[in-house]
Amino acid sequence: MGTRKVKLVGYGYWAKVFEDNRDKTGYEDALVAIGGQTTIDMDLQEDQFEKLKKSQSMLRGKPSTDNDGMTRVRFKRKWTEDYGGGEPVVLKEDGTKWDYDEDGAIGNGSWVEVTLSVYDTSRKAIVGTRLEKVKVLNHKPYVPAIDEEEEDEPVKAAPPKAKAPAKELLDDEIPF
C-alpha cells in the first residue's frame, strides 16, 4: 500500500521536537545508539483518532488525563534513521519556520497540526508511523515549574542513628 500522509489536529503535550530538547536516552538507554528521538503527545478528538486508525497506523492511544473524551497518542521520529531521521519540520501558524532559540519551547495545551507518514515495512504485519511535521496553530508558551527555575537550598540529612555495638565474633563462630 506504500506510504500514506496523515494530518491530524489536537492539543500538544510534552513536545520534544527540537535537537536541543529531544529525548536522547529513552527508557533504560534504549535510544542512545540512534541519538535519541523527537516526540510529541497529542490529545485527539474522536474524529481525528478515527483518521489515524483508518490510515492503518498501529499506534494506539489511551484516555487523556487533561481533556475528557479525548485520546492521547505519542508520535515519534528517530534521530538517526535511513528514511527520515532528525528534527521534524516545525512551523508557526503563518507557515514560517519555528526557531527554538527565538520562539522557545512548545507549551502543553498548544493547538497543533501534525503530519505523519504511515508506511508499510518489510515485515508483513508491521506498519510504521513517523512524525514528519508539527505546525503550531495556537501557541501556549512553555512555563517551567517553579522547581525548574530556582534550586532550593539543599536539605540536610538527619544524622544517622547510633547503632548498638555488634557482638564480637570469635574465629570459630558461624554468624547465623
How would you describe this protein?
With 176 residues, the protein is mainly beta. It is 10% helix and 33% strand. The chain has a 7-stranded mixed sheet, with helices on one face. The longest helix has 9 residues, at 46-54.
Write a concise synopsis of the structure shown.
This protein has 3 helices and 7 strands. With 176 residues, the protein is mostly beta strands. It has a 7-stranded mixed β-sheet, with helices on one face.
Report strand order across the widest sheet.
3-4-2-1-6-7-5
* Biggest sheet record: 7 strands, mixed
Question: What's the Cα radius of gyration?
Answer: 24 Å
Number of helices: 3
SSE topology string: EEHEEEHEEH
Give the N-to-C terminal Cα separation.
68 Å
Q: How are the secondary structure elements laid out?
A:
Layout: E1 3-16, E2 37-44, H1 46-54, E3 62-63, E4 71-78, E5 89-91, H2 100-103, E6 110-120, E7 127-138, H3 146-149
Parallel strand pairs: 5-7
Antiparallel strand pairs: 1-2, 1-6, 2-4, 3-4, 6-7
Tags for this model:
176 residues, mainly beta, 7-stranded mixed sheet, 3 helices, 10% helix, globular
